[in-house]
Amino acid sequence: MLQIIGTKKCTQTRKALRYCKERSIPYQFVNLEERSLSDGEWAKVFNSLNAESLIDEESKYYKKGGYSWREYDPEEELMLHSELLKTPLLKLGQRVVQGVDTDFLEASREHA
Fold first, then answer.
1. Which of 33, 95, 98, 102 has the highest local Cβ count within 10 Å?
2. Which residues of 56-66 are buried (b: 16+ CB within 10 A; e: fewer)?
3. DSSP SS3 for 38
4. Alpha-carbon span 19 to 88, nearest angstrom
């Protein structure tokens, strides 16, 4: 089943949720404000996507934490601080994509 990983505050996450609801695409919403991803889920994310590309450099947490000038391991920081993650992440099986990818969402309907 398709998983949409994000927060309810994120406009792009809400867009993905609305897209699925309007087209009756079954999904599971993982709210990062309520629970963090497991080590296995993070492994699938990092196998599909580069950790550096998942860092939201426009987020308040990034700016407040001084990430622009300090050295850090992107994977480790994302696992510890999901506030740095660009959302939504769309996960289906072993594949993970970042952002509202309508082709990916439509393809997930076939796997439902």
1. 98
2. beebeebeeee
3. coil
4. 13
Give the tokens for residue 103.
């082709």
- What's the pLDDT score for residue 15? 97
What residues form DSSP beta bridges with 55?
85
Alpha helices in the chain (DSSP H): 11-22, 39-48, 60-64, 74-80, 102-111
Taking the whole predicted model, whether its pTM rises above 0.85 is answered as yes
**What is d(CA 29, CA 6) in angstroms, rounded to the nearest whole number?**
8
* Per-residue pLDDT, 27: 96
Count of structural domains within the chain = 1
Per-10-residue mean pLDDT, the chain, length 112: 95 97 96 95 96 95 94 96 96 95 89 68
Domain that holds residue 99: 2-111
Residues 78 and 37: their CA atoms lie apart, in Å, by 10
